[in-house]
Amino acid sequence: MKQTILDMNIDNKRVFVRVDFNVPMKDGVITDDTRIRGALETIQYLVDHNAKVILASHFGRPKGERKADMTLAPCAEHLSKLLNKPVAFVDDCIGDTVTAAVEKLQGGDILMLENLRYHNEETKNDPDFAKALASLAEVAINDAFGVSHRNAASVVGIADYIPMGAGFLLKKEIEALGAAVNHPKKPVAAIIGGAKVTDKISVISNLLPKVDVMIIGGGMANAFIKAQGCNIGSSLFEPGQEQIATDLVMEARVAGTRLLTPIDAVVADAFSNDANTKIVDVEHIEDGWMVLDIGPKTRELYIDALAKMKTIIWNGPMGVFEMDSFAAGTNAVAEAVANADAMTIVGGGDSVAAIEKSGLADKISHISTGGGASLEFLEGKILPGIAALTEA
Ligand code: AMP
To answer: What are the tens digits of pLDDT across the range 45-87?
Structure first.
C-alpha cells in the first residue's frame, strides 16, 4: 500500500505539493480552472493542519527557458481568490530566493513556486534538481495525476529524499481507475475510440481479457472494417493497422469477449463539416468517401450493449466530434454512459470534452484528470509517479 495524505504527519510541517496547474490560458487569463479546483481539497486540508504549503507545477513546454507567457503567477492569483486567502509567489522553484521565501512561511501559509519546467532538469528527473526541491520541505505530496506517467524530478526523483504520499486527487484517480480495471462490478464494458488503432492497441489488449464487451469507434474502427474485407474509401487508415485489428479480433475470441465494431457509418466526401454526407452500411462504403462517425444502427447497438453494464470505461471519441455533422455518435455514447446504472469512468481529453459539452459530467462516477496518464493506467502500466510514492 502506498502512503496517502491521510497517513502522513503533516501538522506544522513544510509540505511540497506537486499539483497540475497546467490550465488553459489566453492572454494571461485562465479559461478553465478545473485543474486548480481539483487541488483545493488537498490544499485546504494542509492549511487546516497548519502545514506550510509549497505548491509546485509545470506550465506548458518552456524547455528550460524562462518564458513570460508560461509563468504560474496568474494561477497563484486565481488560487488566492478561490481560497479567499493570500498565496505568495516566488519567481523560481529552487535557489536562495526560494529558500528565503520558504523560511518566511508560517503554519497555514501558502507559497506557489514558479514553473518547474523553466529548468530542464525537471523533465530529465535530474537527481540534484530533485534534491534541491526536496530540501525545501520535510514531506512531499503528489496531487498531479496528469503528469504521473512522466519520470519527472518533482513527481519521481524527489521521493528519493523525502517521503511522498498521494494527495486527495491522486488518491481518487488511483482508487477509481484501479477498481474499474482490477475488481470491477460485472458486466464490464470498455469503449475505446480515437484516431489511430496503433495508439490504443495496448489499452485494447490489456482490457480485452478483463471486460465482457469491448466497443470500438472513431478512426481506429476503420482498421476493423477493412480487416473484415470491406472497402473503406478514403477513410483515415495507415498500412499495418489491418493486421493489428485482425490480431485483436483473435485476442477477443480467445478471451471470450464480445467485440463490437461499427456496422454502419456516416461517410463524407471531404473532411469538412459542410461536406456531403450519407449513411451507409460498412459493406457499402464507396471510393471517394470517408468514414467520419458511427452510423445510427451502430449507435443503437452500442447503446443497447451499454444499458446492461455495471462498469463502463470510456476513452476516445466515436467520430470527428469537433465537427457538428459528425458528433452524433460520440454524443449518443456520452448519453448512454451517463444514463447507465453503472460505475462509469471517462478518461482522455476528447471524451471528457464531449461529456462536458453534453452537460452530463455530473452523472459520471469518475472523470479522470489525466489524458495520457489514464491511458497508460488502462494499458496496465505502472505509472512512475505512483510507483515512487512511499510505502505505508
Ligand atoms: P485520439 O487523440 O487518438 O483520442 O483521437 C481523437 C481524434 O480522433 C479526434 O480529434 C477526432 O476528431 C479524431 N477522429 C475520430 N474519429 C475519426 C474518424 N473517423 N476519422 C478521422 N479522425 C477521427
So the answer is: 999 999 999 999 999 999 999 999 999 999 999 999 999 999 9
> 107 and 181, same structural domain?
no
Tell me the pLDDT tens digit for each residue of 115-165. 999 999 999 999 999 999 999 999 999 999 999 999 999 999 999 999 999
Check residue 169 and give left, alpha or beta (phi > 0: left; psi -120 to 50: alpha): alpha
- Provide the whole-model pTM: 0.89
Q: What distance in angstroms lies between residue 390's CA and the mean position of ligand 1's atoms?
A: 38
Domain that holds residue 193: 175-378
pLDDT under 70 in the chain at which residues?
none
Q: How many Cβ atoms are within 10 Å of 390's Cβ, its own excluded? A: 16
CATH number at residue 90: 3.40.50.1260
Same-domain status, 155 and 197: no
In a domain, 392, yes or no: no
161 lies in the same domain as 228: no
Count how many Cα atoms sit within 13 Å of the Cα of residue 391 in the half-sphere of its side chain.
Answer: 0
Same domain, 261 and 141: no
Q: Of residues 2, 13, 14, 35, which has the active-site annotation? A: 35
Atom of ligand 1 at shortest range from CA of 293? 19
Question: What residue type is 249 in one-letter code?
Answer: V
